[in-house]
């Protein structure tokens, strides 16, 4: 009986212990669950609501600030208020004329009035564009549109005209507007925090209050956007001036303003000319360019490390499609000189002040002569192969001749490097079926640009005798240096052929 009593007591104690454990465990789990909910709620509460007032809603598609998101100073607020009143007409015109007194004396009243009523568009608001915009605003231009998708960075401060440390991270267009309103509050700024390209050209270069642009400034460093802008302006008869490369330049005495056909010794200018020539535009666009040549000890664009190429297509390494993936060495003073030259040209053009720039490098008569010489050669080749050459035509135009001679072969013979008495000749003997006559009364040569090289008349005569009508090949006639140069030039032409 005592044994049974003792066993029952132990069972009761065991049950009590189990129940107590379950209760305690449940309490602990419940407490942890409550605490977890509280922590989750605290975390959720710490995440701000995205509303129309939140800065995150004003970021551009490139992740940049869409407006001036910095904290405005009292001076900025006063300047903005003054600018608003001034644009609404609450600003004494006599004060404006006093501020522009030196320009007024120089350009006279008529010239200054033209400048004050002008509408200018600046595409690209970096080192060149910011200095051009600042000079134009200080000189009296009262209507200006700024187009740039980029924001101010620390590295911008070595060359930007008006940006300060406080502007880092804000759009370049609004930085320029904010600073220049403090200088000329009556100026109307139309800021477009956008990337320029062919698809946006019509909207971005549209009139302002029914006034077409009096001038467009091309301060873009991306070749596709640059060519698209210049082509649009040319086709729509909008005056434009283009800034060529200021990177790796250091000599301001080598900077010139002239027609794009006359610009030399600058890779950006050469590439732009080539692309425009392929679009049928060979001259008529003023550019600011440098004739400074690279040299020992001078800055240059360093090649990408091999490991970057190993990653794949180097174009995929850039932040944006078709934008450079390397930092271009730039001396801060040179973009400023380029920008001031651009502004100076526009001021003189619009005001009607007398000035002269380097004229267009027109060599149409020379190109006609080269074209006639090439046709004569094709006719001789046709007769030598027993074909009728009467009425033979070439699939090559005068513009093609100019492109090959000036842009591909740099205006020099591939054999001697001489720049005079130049002609185009086939590099290799053509196949026998190089004449197409599938249409009655119409025969044409199948010669391509990639078949031709530049030589002097005398060199072409020897080349024709030995190679085109003889039994030798170029490898038999020329040394390795000439062969390599021809190969490089032909490969160069192939890279541009898809733009044709």
Account of the 3D structure:
- The chain has 500 residues and is an alpha/beta fold.
- It has two domains: 58-293 and 310-351, Rossmann fold; 364-497, no CATH class.
- Helix content is 45%, strand content 11%.
- It has a seven-stranded mixed sheet with strand order 3-2-1-4-5-7-6, sandwiched between helices.
- Helix 4 (101-116) packs across helix 11.
- Mean pLDDT is 84; it is low at 312-320.
Q: Please state the CA-atom Rg, rounded to the nearest Å.
A: 35 Å
- CATH fold category name of the largest domain: Rossmann fold
- Treating each run of at least 4 consecutive H or I residues as one helix, how many helices? 16
Class inferred from helices and paired strands? alpha/beta
């Amino acid at each position: 009986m005592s044994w049974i009593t003792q066993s029952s007591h132990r069972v009761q104690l065991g049950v009590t212990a189990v129940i107590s454990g379950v209760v305690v465990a449940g309490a602990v789990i419940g407490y942890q669950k409550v605490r977890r909910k509280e922590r989750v709620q605290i975390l959720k509460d710490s995440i701000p609501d995205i509303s129309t007032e939140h800065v995150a809603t004003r970021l551009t598609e490139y992740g940049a600030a869409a407006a001036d998101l910095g904290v405005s100073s009292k001076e900025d607020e006063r300047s903005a208020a003054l600018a608003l009143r001034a644009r609404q007409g609450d600003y004494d015109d006599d004060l404006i004329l006093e501020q522009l007194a030196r320009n007024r004396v120089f350009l006279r009243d008529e010239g200054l009035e033209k400048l004050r009523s002008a509408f200018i568009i600046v595409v690209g608001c970096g080192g060149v564009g910011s200095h051009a915009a600042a000079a134009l605003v200080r000189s009296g231009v009262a209507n200006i549109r700024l187009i740039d998708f980029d924001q101010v960075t620390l590295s911008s401060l070595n060359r930007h005209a008006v940006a300060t440390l406080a502007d880092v991270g804000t759009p370049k267009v609004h930085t320029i507007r904010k600073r220049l309103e403090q200088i000329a509050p009556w100026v109307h700024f139309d800021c477009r925090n956008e990337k320029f390209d062919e698809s946006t050209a019509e909207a971005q270069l549209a009139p302002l209050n029914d006034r077409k642009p009096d001038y467009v400034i091309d301060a873009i460093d991306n070749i596709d956007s640059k060519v698209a802008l210049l082509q649009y302006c040319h086709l729509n008869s909008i005056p434009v001036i283009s800034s060529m490369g200021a990177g790796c330049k250091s000599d301001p005495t080598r900077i010139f303003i002239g027609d794009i056909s006359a610009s030399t010794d600058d890779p950006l200018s050469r590439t732009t000319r080539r692309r425009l020539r392929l679009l049928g535009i060979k001259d008529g666009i003023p550019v600011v360019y440098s004739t400074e040549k690279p040299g020992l000890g001078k800055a240059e664009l360093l090649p990408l490390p091999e490991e970057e190429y190993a990653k794949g297509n180097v174009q995929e390494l850039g932040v944006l499609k078709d934008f450079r993936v390397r930092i271009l060495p730039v001396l801060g003073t040179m973009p400023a000189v380029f920008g001031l030259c651009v502004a100076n040209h526009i001021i003189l053009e619009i005001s009607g002040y007398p000035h002269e720039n380097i004229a267009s490098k027109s060599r149409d008569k020379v190109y006609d002569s080269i074209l006639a010489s090439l046709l004569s050669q094709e006719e001789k080749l046709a007769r030598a192969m027993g074909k009728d050459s009467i009425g033979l035509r070439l699939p090559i135009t005068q513009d093609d001749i100019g492109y090959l001679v000036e842009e591909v072969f740099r205006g020099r013979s591939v054999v001697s490097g001489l720049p005079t008495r130049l002609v185009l000749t086939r590099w290799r003997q053509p196949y026998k079926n190089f004449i197409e006559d599938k249409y009655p009364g119409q025969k044409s040569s199948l010669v391509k640009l990639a078949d031709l090289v530049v030589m002097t008349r005398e060199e072409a005569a020897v080349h024709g005798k030995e190679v085109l009508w003889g039994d030798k090949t170029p490898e038999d006639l020329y040394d390795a240096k000439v062969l390599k140069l021809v190969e490089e030039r032909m490969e160069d032409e192939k890279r541009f052929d898809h733009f044709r």
